[in-house]
Amino acid sequence: MKRNKSILHLCEVILGVLMLILILNLYLIKLLVDPDISYTPMYRNLCLTLALLVFCMVLALIQRELLARLLNNAYRDVTGIHNKKSLEKKLQELNDRATTFGVGVMMFDLNNLKHVNDTYGHEKGDEFIQAFAYCLTRILDDHSFLARYGGDEFIIIQENTSPEELKHMDLQLSTLVQEYNTRTSLPLSYAVGFEASYRNHYFMMDDLINAADKNMYQDKFYKKNSRTATEQQKQSSQVIPTVSSEYLAEKIRLIQSQASGKLQIALISTDIENFHYINDKYGYPLGNEILNIVYEEMTASSLSLFTARFFSDVFISIADVSKQTEDALREQIQTMNQKICDRIRDTYHISFFRTNSGIYMIPNEEITPETMISCANVARRIAKKLISHTCLYSPEIDRQEKMQAEILHSFHPALENKEFEIYFQPKIRTTNQAVSSAEVLVRWIRDGKMLWSPDIYIPLFEQNGFVVNLDYYVYEQAFQWLRSYSGKLPEDFRISLNVSPVHFEQPQTFIQKIQNLIDSYGINPSFLTFEITESTYVNNPLAVNQVIRSLQNRNIQISMDDFGSGYSSLNTLKDLLFDEVKIDRMFLGDTISESGHIVLEEIFHMLKRMKKSIVCEGVETQEVADFLKQEGCDEIQGFLYYRPMCRVDFEKLMGC
């Protein structure tokens, strides 16, 4: 398009030069040849021709300008920025590219437009929109594309960018809006969400927009709640203020220096279980009164040297525990918590009220106050899972925390060094006892020795998202193995691969990654089964079904893992899209009771009528194996037959 514009401008210049030459020629003819030539018909005709050419050129320029403006306006709205039609064109252009690396999306939702329109009229509403659009244009650069795609919704597509640059643009906009609000009677407020696509964090355009949109609505929800809380807090009674971590650290140092070995002191961190629910159900004023009561009771404790509200519903006490054994200290903290709960229940009739406390004994050696606070908070979080709701930070907890920190710190170097190795646990077909498939597992091996158990590090990786990279690593290792040995495996052999719940937050990305790996390694999809846990299906059925349908269309089998682990229901079975159901070991045990026989028989009967394959895992006794064969189980997996084995041993087993 730029090339066409350049050609058009060149033609205009050439036409102008030719006309100038013609005018000069006429002038020279008149001046040099015959001063009276202007009275001849030829000269008059030349002048008329020149006038006609000038008129045509002016008319063409006017038409060109009008057409340019019409085309430009077709892609812009009343604010002067790109409209929805122009946005669709831009998105199509980006979708046609090979990758979206370096592309970022910022989405904005302008608040209170309806209120402005209803109260002050649509003309004022247009000014309101234009003011926000003006602020947006001031954060743009040469790589920016700004469009308005709804009444109060805007989008910036930023190329050659990064998350840090998008954050900087967000900060710029916030500053501009704040400055504008000091000069207007109709202040602007907005919600924003942004996301960028880069290596190891790749999005297709649709997913990129969806992620930014999701972040925008989270921001909108947060700001709305913050405004509501602020408004309600203004109407409520005074609540004990929070203290900064710096202030709290200084207070700990001061009391430590005063104690100087004479006192044994401890930090006690206490919170209110599900305090946000109390605020939502009963309102912020009552929530503030409850915070004040908790503070009063903790301050009144005979142990307390200093008590402060640290943040939200979390309180920190510095306590004198010199004359307390650990058991007596736990008991006294439980008594204090019970007193708080009784007072709240008696005053406000809130039957579900509960507090949790974590205790950290401050040692004599030099430890930073920040570490002490962290340890007390760790103990408080553990207390939530205990019957007593009180936990004393111990050497064992410290060991667990350090181990978890080491695991997380070691993950990326371990992945680069290929310390994660795939293992196989075979499954046998009940009809002929032959190995018919195998589940691919992962083990962390360093210097020939197995490190932590997967039961320790997999939940950690699921919490912080590392499991996504680990899963793709395992899939890639398994596909490499399949490419090498698929020709030596039985025709109907399959390997099973586990799918972590985190993938279903972005199902389309997961589907595309799997397809890319299949294409990259030239794998026949009929060798693959993906195992998805029943709990994942129950918590996110729409995303799971989307993945199931897409993978089944590629001839990949899907298995419901851990069936019977606590979520099973007839409703789950009713809408089952899975090809296979894998009965959890918790459902079986070492022996099966008479009632268990009946339940399993009926489940098997239903699954068979639904034409689902049945696999049972965790089989360790011949008694259970015989029962499963008799009832028509298709495959059995468990220590009775095979334990997980390294790839070399599995290759020997399969004769590869």
Automatic annotation (TrEMBL):
The record's listing under NCBIfam families reads: GGDEF (TIGR00254)
Q: What is the lineage of its organism?
A: Bacteria, Bacillati, Bacillota, Clostridia, Lachnospirales
The answer, when asked if Membrane is one of the entry's keywords, is yes
GGDEF domain location: 101-232, 263-395
Domain named EAL is located at 404-656
Name it: EAL domain-containing protein
Q: Which UniProt keywords apply?
A: Membrane, Transmembrane, Transmembrane helix
Species name for this entry?
A: Ventrimonas faecis
Could you confirm whether the keyword 4Fe-4S appears in this record?
no
- Name the Pfam families on file: EAL, GGDEF
The membrane spanning regions, by residue number, are 7-29, 41-62
